[in-house]
Amino acid sequence: MIYPNSRYSRFAKAAAHFCGRPRVFSLAAAVIAVWLITGPLFGFSDTWQLVINTGTTIITFLMVFLIQNTQNRDTEAIQVKLDELIRATQGAHNALLDLEELEEDNLDAFKARYQALAAAARAELDKGLVDTGTPEP
Fold this sequence. Notes:
Blueprint lengths: L6 H13 L2 H17 L7 H43 L15 H23 L11
């Protein structure tokens, strides 16, 4: 089942992919080098400084949104994949599905339970026992 992406989603993905290339980094480094070299030509004036400050601020501002969009999509895809692994694993707790949507108090309760299980498993390892399997009867 394939769903069409929105124009913004396609643009954000393409822009993030493009901007992550070594050539784009090299281009950005070259722009900075040219700016540095032109400093003496412009007497390190306020306008000379303003050009780089304005340019980098605008680019940074726009890139934050592109990066956040890409990060959100990646995170959601990973969560869905993890949910599917939990759902498909026999003996797994289906209550763990969609944990990222819980309130912090509920999430902390799940975390405390699994921290206790981990501590018990480490104690078993210290005794020379195995820590595999499920702790439930």
